[in-house]
Every structure is written in C-alpha cells, then in structure tokens.
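Box S1 | Example of a co-folding query
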Amino acid sequence: MRRLLVAGNWKMHGSRAENAALLDAFLRAEPPAGDAEVLVCPPFVYLHELARQLRENDVALGAQDVCAEPVGAHTGEVSAAMLRDVGCTYVIVGHSERRALYGEDDQLVARKFVAAQRERLVPILCVGETLDERESGRTAEVVLRQLDAVLELAGVEGFRDAVLAYEPVWAIGTGKNATSAQAQEVHALLRARIAAKDANMAACLRILYGGSVKAANAAELFAMPDVDGGLVGGASLNGEEFRRICGAAGKQET
Ligand code: PEP
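Box S1 (continued) | Returned holo structure for phosphoenolpyruvate
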C-alpha cells in the first residue's frame, strides 16, 4: 500500500512570524491527516527554524530547489548536503517556475535529481505541459521527454526513492485544476513509462498531482487510482485549508 503524500510548496512567501502562525493553524485544525504523509517546503532561509518547530509534529521538511553541484564556487546556490544538514528529507526539482523563469532545462533538472539522491534526499520531480502544448496535442510528448531525461541519467533505480509530480503549467496558480480524468490519464502514462522498465518500482512510485488543488477538489483527485497525493501551492498557505486537503488524502485507500 502506498501512503499518500501531500506537499505544501510555499514558494517565495512567508516570514518567521507568518510561518509560525501558519504552522500553528495547521497543527490545531481538523481533520487529522489520517494516514497521509505531510511535507512543507518553505524558502531556504526558513528551513532550519522550521526543522526545529516540526520535529515533534510528524510533518516532514523539503526544499524548493537544490544546486546540481555538491560544493564550491557557486554563489547563491544551496547544496543537497546543506539541505540534509538543516533537516530536509525531500527536495522539489524541476518545478515549472524554475524551468520557465530560471531557464532550467531537462538535463539540469536530471542533474539536480541525482545530486539530491547522493545526499539521501528524496527528489520530487515535477513534469507538466503548458496550455499551448496541451492544446496542440503534445502533453504526452512533453511529460515523457521530461521524465526520460531523468531516467537516462539516474536509471529506473533512481525512482526507488523518488516522487513524481504531474503539474500542468496551465493549472498552477490559476484556480483551474485539471479534471480528475485528465490527471489520471497523464499519471497512468507516467507510471506506464516506469513500468516498462520495472513493474514493481512503478507500482510503488508515488505520483502527485499539482495545480490548483484545494479542499473542494482534493478528494476527487486523490480518489484516482494513479494519483498518490498532491503538490499544493497557494492552498498550503492557509493552515485550515491545507489541513483539509491532508485530511482528504488521509482517507484514501490505495
Ligand atoms: C505549485 O506551486 O506547485 C502549485 C501547484 O501551485 P498551486 O497549488 O497554487 O496551483
């Protein structure tokens, strides 16, 4: 049985005071997260403090990005070892905002995936198509190209301790989520790509859906057979709402 994972991507939001209030609201809210694993990904500068605040609360900590290099003259970058050192267990790689705004290509994302695993961090690899790509019938081609770049560098073995996230770019921060059928279709395609190389690995791989997940649509999305949780942006900035999303994941049987 796969334990569903709900990850909150705070993006470039928060302050020490706001983070404490958000965490407090999340921890006090109902319903319980049930069986779901919960993870928050704040900006780098807050990781250390949050690691201490989360220690007692069964909420894991992740970063939003990582340097592909292990150490050295890379001004402004943060290595996987540093993330490990401050208490991270997960890291997002290849978020569409990194790809679109900071020019990260498939090969760099693959190197980040491998760099994370070298330090025993679990990478959450994001893939997803733009609206233009979907409307021109290229969704499968795009997400499989993004996945294949990582398969090529890390091998299928790399997916033993990894998470995949399907995040259609047109659904991120727009309030317009993919339907559960659209999500299921792409998730099944991604899982089949891994299954072609290793069926057991594919069966255990968690594939998250991201893109305007909220409490109102979470249960329907998480009920899909190949949707193993969510990567949640905007709605993770509201403690009660995020709690309800985790509650929806915690109720699912997989
Ligand atoms: C994200 O940032 O990965 C995301 C899915 O954002 P949102 O939930 O706001 O669409």
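The chain is about 45% helix and 15% strand. Residues 9, 11, 167, 172-173, 210-213, 231-235 surround phosphoenolpyruvate (CB under 6 Å).
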